[in-house]
UniProtKB/TrEMBL annotation:
<keyword id="KW-0520">NAD</keyword>
<dbReference type="InterPro" id="IPR029041">
    <property type="entry name" value="FAD-linked_oxidoreductase-like"/>
</dbReference>
<protein>
    <recommendedName>
        <fullName>Methylenetetrahydrofolate reductase</fullName>
        <ecNumber>1.5.1.54</ecNumber>
    </recommendedName>
</protein>
<dbReference type="GO" id="GO:0035999">
    <property type="term" value="P:tetrahydrofolate interconversion"/>
</dbReference>
<keyword id="KW-0274">FAD</keyword>
<comment type="pathway">
    <text>One-carbon metabolism; tetrahydrofolate interconversion.</text>
</comment>
<dbReference type="GO" id="GO:0005829">
    <property type="term" value="C:cytosol"/>
</dbReference>
<comment type="pathway">
    <text>Amino-acid biosynthesis; L-methionine biosynthesis via de novo pathway.</text>
</comment>
<comment type="similarity">
    <text>Belongs to the methylenetetrahydrofolate reductase family.</text>
</comment>
<keyword id="KW-0560">Oxidoreductase</keyword>
<dbReference type="GO" id="GO:0009086">
    <property type="term" value="P:methionine biosynthetic process"/>
</dbReference>
<dbReference type="GO" id="GO:0071949">
    <property type="term" value="F:FAD binding"/>
</dbReference>
<keyword id="KW-0028">Amino-acid biosynthesis</keyword>
<dbReference type="Pfam" id="PF02219">
    <property type="entry name" value="MTHFR"/>
</dbReference>
<keyword id="KW-0285">Flavoprotein</keyword>
<dbReference type="GO" id="GO:0106312">
    <property type="term" value="F:methylenetetrahydrofolate reductase (NADH) activity"/>
</dbReference>
<dbReference type="InterPro" id="IPR004620">
    <property type="entry name" value="MTHF_reductase_bac"/>
</dbReference>
Amino acid sequence: MKVTEHLERANGKTLFSFEVLPPRKGENIKNLFSNIEPLMEFKPPFIDVTYHREEYAYRKRPGGLLEKVTVRKRPGTVGICAAIKNRFDVDTVPHLICGGFSKEETENALIDLHFLGIDNVLALRGDPIKTESHFVPDPNGHAYASDLIAQVACMNKGHYLDEEQEDSFATDFCIGTAGYPEKHFEAPNYGADMRYLKQKVERGANYIVTQMFFDNEQFFAFEKKCRAAGINVPIIPGLKPMTTKSQLTMLPRTFYLNIPEALAEAVHDAPDNAAARDIGIEWCINQSKELMAHGVPCLHYYSMGKAESIRRVAAALF
Ligand code: FAD
């Protein structure tokens, strides 16, 4: 079922969802299942599975020459979505990115997802890989998420890259897109970012999931600006409990966000990581409660591979 149908059926009740990372190459899927199992009691209607792009590395060959090799640490998003769907009877949302994909490869991935009965995709641009100073699209790929969204929307109308299929061969994906309460780091200003977000919705995005934030005022202001700009699709806030002291610098560095002073000071002064985690979880519970009272349709939690702190947050709320 589509994410938007789940939201409609909830009839005003806030739903719980979360995202998982594909296991590292060679790891057993059982580890992933055992991370998901404790969260199933909170009845997520859908689970997101992130996509991790290839990276390049240089290996020294005999004789000293350097060889450029492709390294993929967490492949298999499509298969993992199908495995989770079958194992837990829950809808899954694969993340699809522009980076590293040609339009043909994207079309093939979408055809596979359609065959597997997966009804949703979260369409993203992806970040530059470590060896790039800025995002470089595949020569035959998409430069922005809005272009990827347009491709999915075209397939939903039965238009494929090389031919126009009968209507009966149209896919019917529900398309999610990313929104940034604190602005995407590359956007020259908030207004420009908002215009591009609106373009993503006009091209076919059915709902928005936000980047994580730790100050609800940022979300409330973002939601207000979206509505004022005529963006009327559901907006799902993304949250993450802070779980270690080192995240005080890692999260702003990686996701370009602000940590409110009260949280930053409390985590900084915590005697150890266990105490820091308790503070982070408590903060996330309070954030979630306020967002639920505000009437958000769903709370989406970033697990970043660690489910226990999400379980503690959910146990206090759902
Ligand atoms: P876009 O919407 O394309 O925007 C990128 C930048 O370009 C923005 O600054 C925007 O303002 C600007 N822009 C947009 N359109 C135009 C235009 N037409 N002309 C000029 N400028 C434009 N990354 C992964 O690799 N894998 C994942 O699984 C993943 N999951 C994510 C889930 C969520 C909920 C979020 C919020 C992010 C996720 N990311 C993931 C990270 C995401 O790929 C990065 O934040 C990326 O830098 C931007 O992606 P986007 O889809 O928002 O890009």
